[in-house]
Predict the 3D structure of the following.
Amino acid sequence: MSATTTGTAAPEPLSPTTGETVAEVARRNRLGIWLIIVSCSTGTVALLVAYSYLWSLNVSSGWAPTAGQANWADDWPFWAIALGMVLATVLLWRSWRVMQAGKSGASVALAGLASLIFLVCFIGQILQIATFPFGPQDGAYASATLWLALANCIWLSLAMFLATAVMNRARLGRIAPDNASQIQFIAMFATYLCVAALLGAVFTLTMKASPNQSSPPFGTFQN
Amino acid sequence: MSTVDERTPEAEEPENPTNRPAGMHLVSRWMNRPYARRIILLTVIISAVIIALTFVMVAFMNLSGGPASDIQGEIEKTMYVLTFTCAPLMGFTLAIITYSWWGGWGKVKSEEEPTEEGPAIRTNGVAVVAWITVCSLLAAFLVIWGLVELATITASSYGSVAANQQPNSAKAIDINVTGQQWLWSFEYPDQGKITSSELVVPVNVPLYFNVTSLDVIHSFWVVEAGVKIDVNPGAITNTGFTPNKLGTFNIRCAELCGLHHAYMETNLRVVTQEQFESWVREQGGARTS
Amino acid sequence: MSDTAVIYEQKHVPQPRQVGKPGGFLHRTNFVTAVVSGIVLAAIFYFITGAIVQKVTGGGQQNNLSLPDGLQQQITMMYIGWIIGFMAGIGAFAGPIRWMLGHDLTHADAEYMSGKDMGRKKFWKYTTDHKVVGIQYLIVALILFGLGGLLAMLIRTELGVTWAEVFNPNFYNSLIGTHGIVMIIAMIIAVTGPLGNFIVPIMCGARDMAFPRLNALSLWLLVAAIPPLVSNLLMGGIRDGWTVYQPLADQAPVGMIGYQICIIVFAFSTGIASVNLITTVVTMRARGMTWSRVPIFVYGVVGSSIMGLIWFPMFQYSQILALSDRMLQTSFYTPASGGSVWLYENLFWLLGHPEVYVIVIPATAALLEIMPVFLRKPLFSYKLAIAGIFGIVGLSAVVWVHHMYMTGWAPSSNYPFMMSTEMISIPFSFLLLVMLGTMWRGKPWMKLPMMAVYAVIWNKVIGGITGVYLSDTPVDQYMHGSMFVVAHFHFMLMGAGLFGAMGAIAYWFPKMTNRYLDELIGAIGFWTAFVGFQVTFFAMFVAGLQGMPRRVLQFDQAFNIANWISTIGAYVIGIGMLIFLYAMITSWRSGKLAPGNPWGAHTLEAQTETPVPHENFPVLPVVTSDPYGFGVPDPYELLDSAELQAKEGVSKVGAS
């Protein structure tokens, strides 16, 4: 929160806790968000690696869902949710731009709308998980796909919290045109979430049936 | 007659006192420094000790009767090569810390305060370039030696090859190794599918192993033959060797696999061809190849 | 908006509305409230989960472990309840909730949270002052080392008693696994925790870290993660090595869940700490501290943090998926239904390898910082040291498969990874050259920090050559899974890592505690432990060469002698470490008072008073050179040029 005083030139807004300029603190926070994104990306990579590695191995012919032959999950929910997240993220970026231009009311509305869309995606994600044509015990594809969806669920709940917080803070004036970068940080993180969701959608779309159809049955030496 | 030489042009720089190249003059001048010669001497002594210790190391490896295969022989040779090539660098490092520790350059005791400062050497181009060159060459040598050795033991003895590679010797004995909590079982598909809990094989015959697990990860370690491959559930891995010594050797599990991992051992018995065939007959099998 | 606050250099800054007392909710929270609410929520989750499971399954829950129905779910939720309850009880949620509600911190809030004028109380609370967090990390590290050390003594006792089984094999397997992971965690935080937090911000000329609240968060997450891990021993144990390979880990009883929860939480702690450290160094250095004037210790801590930041989630997810296999019956690692053990091994070692550099680099960098001070010479080839650190950081990403040479997962991959593993010795050689070059022609001041340098270089040479053996796939074919490997990594992680950390702590002890660490007792402890260390692990090398596998409690008679010697050495280590600990404790309480710069260093933290003022610097410093401006002109160089002058009558600067 900062104040502008009367006078010909507005003094640089200062952070109330440390007295440093808001711009300095914002630079620090931005780097922090980048580093968090880097770390979270490794986690996403771990899940994608699990998916693709198990797909390529098809150990004991256990990749495909055992609950019915080739019972792959529908593709459209992945894409719908990912695109919903993209839309919400775009709205967050817009909210930042609009706040920088001084229109805090519009900024609040955009952030609120983004938060709502994340909520819809979150509910959609839960519905998708609940309606998978397989359970967690149904083999490696089922496990990996379930976890891509579950991880997305967790990220979405975080995104909802962040977007709601942005909306509330903007509404209260804690985010104002002279420290609008707070919205930028959330938008950056949301962008990473979109990339993760899109990658998950791509992997589940393109890697269904395993290329290795000749694994030996478990515990035997047949080739 | 003039004694002044008017034909030879004036030298622009002072000339070298001898015909040796310029660098050598600097090297020998460096060697005149008291610490230089002592550190070189220490390096030589310590390197010699390290080289001597290598023989002790390999002796420990062979205490239980090895080497029992060419692969183990290659491994031991590699130990010598790796140590001998690294010994000078190790010796040099230990020489410096020894010399420094024993006060070769002086020492300030703990109770005192330092009163003088050392030479302000921020860097030394010669040292840096020489060191990096030597270390890179050493690393490159180790890599090349390692790659060649790996290819050697893989090609000649089927060590750790891909699961679908066929043994290329008609005389090789195929053995299916199954590890499970907490015992080994060996099946000889070409000898009438006999199974055994001991690995009995004839000397000088190549062996090819297909290895899998029924439960958790184990590791099939034929100790004196220098052969090891993990035993994975859901996968078949391969290894092989040719035993070149008669005797009884150890097979141990080298990956923690639960309660009785420590007891998951069995014997490798390398016997003569006749003894092998009579053993096969005793187990109820027959040579089918 | 009506208030302003006076901050540091007499700036008047408008403040947001003060919500409640300065410090708000954190007035009511401390370690005790955290433990209590952790236990309470754990119990609540445990019983509710039990009730739900009963209702849903009618008591007929199928699981593959012959456990009482639903126990696994209950234990998992219990641990989760502990974590959430503990963090709530220490006040960690106050931050995000206040942020969302728009109740931003005022300067008075920040001052309260930083523990200003709070006395000893601040060490028990969610305190943001980096100096407090540094001390807290030191205490946690000491506790972990004590626990790990005790387990080590038990392990060596079992291995020394070759004529009987002291512990049953399941308990023994749990001992070694718990010893391993406790020590790994302790080593990860050993230098970066206390010194990265306490010293680095001051060394950079900052008043605190970039994200003070995240600093407190990373510490308390670590504290929360420890009871689940340690409690495994009471819940059947993990019965697996510290690597908890699947699918053996699946066979462990509910104690394994404690391990998994610990790692999942610890990964967050480490990631947050890394973000904090990196951001602090990149954005908060003093004016004039260009990248070529940053102390090498800071580079080491940053390099280590980068590796931890990037790779820790791999370990974290390996455990999440393992927990999922256990709880949801997914099949990431169960081969009978499509899972792969190699997936686990890859995910694990993708962190597992960079992790050892996360441990070794800060300790090495601390010694690089120490050497110029105790030799009164500049650091040799500072730029090469930086290149070495970041060469290791880069290459650490592409060597992990050398832990998997023998798995058979991709035999042809052994070739390129053997190459990359050998290549990483080159940046290591840079660091060694810097150490040797600094030591060259220097007159060592034989205080404890300097003595540690000699111990560490010796241990690194042994660890290094044995590492060269192991990196060679054919040799690894003999050595992998044997005690040779155990001795090798103890030489690196303990020999170089722990003894280096002890030297670093001895060096910065006066700055952190205002007292000198007792030189005599500290040295006795240090060298006793060192001698015991050599005995223990050289004997262990012999056992490995003879063919003794690792993680076994009973073994062939041929290995008896090596194990007896090793056990005696281990007891000597124990005695030495206790003596060193005794030195730390007595010095901390009543040691000789130390001035701000006891060693004559040029780094910024040595220019502050001790005890360090609350805001570190009354006025932020401006830096004009690197901290290695020691030394006088080289007498040999002067001699050379004087000789040449005399000889040639020409003015010329001689070469050395």
Summary: The helical segments of chain A are 22-57, 76-100, 104-130, 140-172, 181-206. Chain A has one domain: 22-206. Residues 22-57 of chain A form the longest helix (36 residues).
